[in-house]
Amino acid sequence: MRRSIALLLFVLACSVAPAFAGIVFEAHLTGAQSVPPNSSLASADGVFTLNDAGTQLSWVITFQGLEAPLISAHLHRVPTGTGVPLTIGLNPPLGLTSGSWSGVANVSPTTVAEMQAGMFYANIHSEAYVDGEIRGTLVVSTTTGARRGTWGRIKALYRSQGPGGR
After folding, report:
1. Which CATH code fits 19-161?
2. Cβ contacts of residue 5 below 8 Å, gap of 6+?
3. pTM above the 0.70 mark?
4. Which helix (H) or strand (E) holds 42?
5. Which 8-state DSSP code applies to residue 160?
6. Contacts of 80 by beta carbon, 8 Å cutoff, 6+ apart
């Protein structure tokens, strides 16, 4: 009997999902979302995946059509429609007008909570728009099909865009 209860408890413990499993954020960046809005026709799509422990954020970002070479990219913490100092550097490939990249950064529990509350946006800066050419708010993904909480969504995005962008 004890062995059966111990086995049942073990199975239950192994089947409980981690607190952050499945949290994937997406962002679609455009010039119209920049503050102030601009006429750039550039765009980008980003997929941001939180690890199961909720301590690291990984991303894949694909961008195209910047009016001038890329000079920086960041995540900022602030409600949509305003600007704020850099929060997380995204370490993009500099000097390109189209392409894609991936990365990872450590995040705090406060940052995770604020991301879930919609308080983060991605911003890509170019030589033509040093304050930001394109911008988009991170939102919790509602996309189905790819397994959330794994690299499935990131791989699917990368495969659909190809290594050289769209």
Report:
1. 2.60.40
2. none
3. yes
4. none
5. H
6. 33, 118, 121, 137
User: Which amino acid does the sequence have at 162?
Assistant: G
> Minimal CA–CA distance to 46: which of 117, 3, 113, 99?
99
pLDDT recorded at residue 87: 83
Residue listed under structure tokens 């990131």: 154
Are 77 and 85 in contact by the 8 Å Cβ rule? The answer is no
Give the integer Cα–Cα distance in Å for 122 and 124.
7
Nearest to 86 by CA among 47, 117, 120, 53: 120
Check residue 18 and give its pLDDT: 45
Q: Give me the pLDDT at residue 143, please.
A: 75
* Beta-strand relationship, 43-50 and 86-89: unpaired
Q: Which residue has the tokens 């920086």?
A: 72
**Token pair of 145 as six digits:** 């099909």
The residue ranges of every structural domain in the chain are 19-161
Joined tokens for residue 151? 């690299």
**Residue 151 DSSP label:** T
